[in-house]
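Usage example:
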Amino acid sequence: MDDNKQEATPDISAFLASAIHDMKNSISILIKFLNSSITELEPEAQRRAAPMLYEAQRVNDNLIQMLAIYKVGNQFYPFDLTENSIDDFVHGIVEQNESLLSYLGIELNLDFDDELTWYFDRELVTGVISHALGNASRYNKGKLKLSVKEEEGELVIRVEDNGGGFPASVIEAGDAVRKGVNFSSGGTGLGLYFSSMVAKLHKNRDKTGSMSLENGGEYGGGCFILRLP
Amino acid sequence: MFVSDDINAAFIGKYFLIVDDFQGMRTLMREMLKTFGVKNIDTVTNGLEAIASLEKNKYDVVLCDFNLGTGKNGQQILEEAKHRDLVGLSTAWVIITAEKTADMVFGAAEYMPDDYILKPVNEATMRSRLEKVIARKAVLANIEKAMRAKNHARVVALCDELMVSSKTSATELLRIKTGTLLAMGQYDQAKQVFEQILAKRDIPWAKTGLGKVAYYKNDMDRSRQLFREVINQNPAYLEAHDWLAKCHEAAGELEEAQRVLVRSTELSPHSVLRQKNLGELAHKRGDMETAEKAFRRTIKLGEFSVHKSPGAYLGLAKVCSSKNNPAEALQILKNVTKEFESSETAMHAKVVEGLVYREAGDHINAGKISKEVAELVRADDNKGNPGMMLEAAQLFLATGNKEAAENLAKSVVRNNHENTELLAQVSELYNQAGFQDIGQALVNKSKQEVIELNNRGVVMAKEGKLDEAIKLLSDARTMLPNNKRIMINLVNMAILSMRQSGRNDYLMQLSRECVEQVAKLDRQEEWCAQVRAALDAIPATE
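Running the assembly step on the lines above writes:
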């Protein structure tokens, strides 16, 4: 006989969206506060304080990613495919990330065609690339490169660093996510899943976007690549 | 981006309106705008104040917070401003929001903001987004003028002209151009533009546009397929849902239509119009539970909206009545006459009141109201909307007021003799009251009368007796003020007459009245645009 009186496990997804929103607000206040406090420090103190900003940024990225994944999964995400100027897009990304990079003393080189425009959901792709830059800022030896180019009818966005490259397990996890294989690789899982989801949302006729991780590239370190048709 | 020595060039001389309920945000935005060099800034705290400012002043940019506490939200202010023509194409409307929603991005084109900026706002983003939107909008001032003058052909010409010179506004110009072509009934031209866009890239609005063309050309399978494709690729694309529901409803697939509407109300939980559509459709299907919920929500959401309308109240009253709750139905009807001070609403509420009494078995009150309605209909000269007229006829039949029912039914048929759906409804009304033969005969006879009258006019005109034909049809129009066919023939004759004997104030006036009335009855009438152009082209006589 069924025990009808037993309380059902609460469906946490009902609270998820609003709780994430709330946390996002708190974190963005925290980030603002950290930024204005760190700016006033001496360069060496800035470098030591920068990890606080990095960690807060990471929490913020995770929340944004979870919210987007939740909405896309429930088919609520207003996927907004519009024509964006690459010049604007790159500068937006730089503005979002420049304070952290400068505190860490990292040099960010840009390589893009400023006349180029492309169709994509600006918010999602900005989320993906900012996250990739954040990651790269942790595993490099002082040099990053963001390049945005058209190659064979696709927009190719690369985030490269001069660090030791991705460990084999991360490259494998990247491949698994891209191929849609089930994955459970802890910390890197969410970001990879999000990036791959955003890539796949971008379709043009019979072509679909893709995300991949490589080692090598121009700086010999890790290389995150997003391709949008 | 701007090749200019002054980095604030884009902002010089611009008028801004800031709408935000928080003092802190208003100050922050004002300070930001000042650093961009903006001098003319008004700030208001809520929807009422915003509308009052928009009534008095013309702004280049409105920066409007989405969530404004009680009262209208930012989207509702935008809807009222557009609906009442307080802002035109060249005013940039930017919504500041914590989260972008399907409504803002994919809602009905006529109520979409020009941009949205996500919170928290920072100065650099604000500056670059505003520069962009100002540049985009500056191009559109002349198009706005042509639109206000209802000069569709000029709008299209301006779009073509500007597309050559302005790259920033290309997408917007294409959207305005295709939207105007559709309104003119130039479906093939619109189709051509959509196909050119789609040849390069799959873009949801262009594919939705192609679906609309198929819909207007009565190619229902194709249009349904196109809207479905858009939704498959972009599940939150609201406009395609709206149109897909329309397709299903037109094809009589009401259950499917309801499913699509339910989904679209989930995607845009603040939309008054979609809730109302859902309520009406569910009511038509006899799904009283869904109808009740939707109508209640429509009323609640509509409280501060320009889309607040008596329809949801009347619908809810009917639902309550069929759920054996006449007391609430009557209360709602009392409220609706108070909330909306229009004679048409009062009359419609009275009709529904009679039907509520009738359904509750209160024949005395039903009979009393039936007589009152008969008086109102006579005084109103049969000018009400056909839906209400049919309900009044239903009340008359149910209360044994056969003569009034017959007069009204005749009037509906004569005014709409080519509207097969409506004619079927008239017959059905008589069937349900148990008078099959009478209903069918009435419909056939009244329809035949109008056709003969019309034909007489056309024959006269062909025999060269234009003046007589015009007299005949303009008399007919006085009796049948909503008959499209009569108005169309009348105007065609008037134009012919003026081409032969010169411009004539009386005929000009008569023609313009008819065109506007036809446009009101059927917004998509291709004929209207052509006639407006033909009337404009008739030279003045010395």
